[in-house]
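Dear support,

I submitted the protein below through the web form. The confirmation email said the job was done, but the results page showed an empty box. After a refresh the structure appeared. I'm attaching both so you can tell me whether what I see now is the final result or a partial one.
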Amino acid sequence: MKSATSLTGSGSRDWIVQRISAVVLAVYSVVLLGFFLTHGDVSYTEWSNFMTSLPMRLFSLIAVLALAGHAWIGMWTVFTDYITTGKLGASAAGLRLVLQTLMIIAVFVFLFWGIMIFWGNGFGVVAV
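What the results page shows now:
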């Protein structure tokens, strides 16, 4: 199913973006796990210094972007595969549009929030 809300407009490119973003997120998780395993009892100062260093800020930005793309493609796939007229009748198109719109809004909110956390004035910038 072709949709304007597909990230790249191509199933093959969406598949590649999904896989690359999964690798980025896996590596990011391993880096964070490695930090905790090698530092034992971590103080806030150590954690803050690690996360606000330029390499981790850049890597965190890449991870936030990867998460946004991964979530967008994944949820678009779920909505177009399972919210269909064959399963839900005539109301499927409207429901899918509403769900995709909510997903797009959520992805942009979390993307903006993630960028503000890592590139604002430290971790407390948009903490609610």
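Response: this is the final, complete result; the empty box was a page-load delay. Residues 11-39 form the longest helix (29 residues).
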